[in-house]
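Q: Is it fine to ask for two folds in a single conversation?
A: Yes, each is treated on its own. Send the first.
Q: Here.
A: Result:
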Amino acid sequence: MTGIALKIGLTPEHACSYLPAEKERLMVLLEDKYRSAEGYEALLNAGFRRSGNDLYRPHCQRCTACHSLRLSIADFQPSASQRRIKQRNNNIQIVLSSQDKPEYYDLFARYIHARHKDGSMFPATRNQYDNFLLCDWLSPYFVEFHLEQQLVAVAITDPLPLSLSAMYTFYDPAYSGLSLGTLAIMTQVDLARRMNRQWLYLGYQVDGCRKMKYKTHFHPYELLIDQEWKSEHSDEE
């Protein structure tokens, strides 16, 4: 995005969702020019993310802990533990949908109430779900995971010309032992490979936030540091 002027606004500082001791401030895009699959992909490459219809990037005064993370589909190599998770779940049926369904929100609400009672998304509401995950200018994919005809997880991912962007994954808390979050990322890697996409964007990696650590278990990965994508390798074996 070097040399491209963007009309942006800055939010007031508020409590950080990732690091409780820090204050968070966001840079929010104010113009419609980049609200398309092509425009969003260019902004993803510059560290932006989507939340509902909005495009934003952290712009904190005293902290630079958030770094965009992406996987190269051609280079990705699952670890031994990730291969075991995939094999252990080979009885799960995966269905790709392009439409939101009522049962998705029901599963989302159960997940938030069980796993994120200490987070900003608790308590879950239908309006919150719509404003966070759905979008008027882009149609996400809904990757369904079924076990014995029961919906146990949904991964929402944005299809873009050269990449997929993982938006959010939620699952039935009763099946947390199946490592469905890990399975969801590997499934999106497989989907990107079948679609001949180059990247899978996984959002922000925040060192010091335990809940975000899982992203570095997929390797090799790239981090956006000082507006330059740099290759990193996980210690996961």
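Q: Second one now.
A: Result:
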Amino acid sequence: MSEARNNYKLRDEIKDYWSLRAEKFDLSAGHEIFTQSERDAWYQLITEHIGAGKGRKALDLASGTGVISHLLFDLGFQTTGLDWSETMLAKAREKSEIRKSDIKFIIGDAENTMQPLGTFEVITMRHLVWTLVDPKAAMQHWFDLLQSGGKLLIVDGNFKQADWRRKLIKMVASLFSMFEGKDRHGRDAQMMKTHNHILQRVYFNQGVTSVAVVEMLTDIGFKDISVQTDLSTIHRAQAKGLGFFKFLDRSVQHRFAISASKP
């Protein structure tokens, strides 16, 4: 095996995986936002957890194509989106130009951003925590990036959850050929294999739960932690784009929004 391959680490594999996903990322419901009702549901969730923008400096981690970054911009935050995939960032910048937003998109690792500490009043992320190699170190870094009184918002879910409800939904859906060929995000068999290979090796390889995240945040020193496990308003708004069985599957998953403050 070559030295280059020996030096190809899990973080590199994750980065390359998301770069490959970038081209079709915005085609899927649950990634891009296609309806005003879903946009309004996200506005409500963000505002309830971290308050109004009012020019506050926000860092959107693993910003991808800029979906959450643009919600923050719409709400009046001075927004920076950070992602380590240049392909994702290129899509985000294209979108920003079309929408005439002034979001700053920069390349960086969400677990070690290299940004000045004590800089941001808000840090957000969607579907990042489940991919982390060292989540406690990452959360400590986010704590250090925030100003005193700053707010953290995590939106994520337990995508490894395999209770009887999800098994039943998948079984019934398979009878209607809903899970054949490609999965709900347009991934072919090889990309799904890569995804599963990555998932087996990240820290939360058995799935990330709100309880585990809250425990880490508490240990680090975050305060005023709030957990929301009912994201049904968002899921209902996504229903048409997801299709019936995928909507059912999403509805029974353990998905959550967690906000916390730095004292």
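Q: Anything structural to flag on that second result?
A: Two points. The two ends are 49 Å apart (CA to CA). Residues 10-25 form the longest helix (16 residues).
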